[in-house]
Amino acid sequence: MKKLFVVALLVMFAATIAYASDVVTYEAKNGNVTFDHKVHGEKLGCDACHEGTPAKIEVSKDMAHKDLCKSCHKSKGMKTGCKTCHVK
Question: Does residue 86 sit in helix, strand or coil?
Fold first, then answer.
């Protein structure tokens, strides 16, 4: 019984870590884009994307390609080709 309890706790712990990683996948015709919110937040801070109090941002194609994602990657000297973000 104790072993079953320990296994259940380990599974719950692993599920919590997976959920907390905060990875979002955006579906696109030319390949899905995976965005790791936690990694971006740790590297850039909330203010890089969020104005004022952080809240959920609805990401559109135009926002990703022009306003926010691509322009930030470009300013950091990162690759900005389609296949950099879009994976089939």
Answer: strand
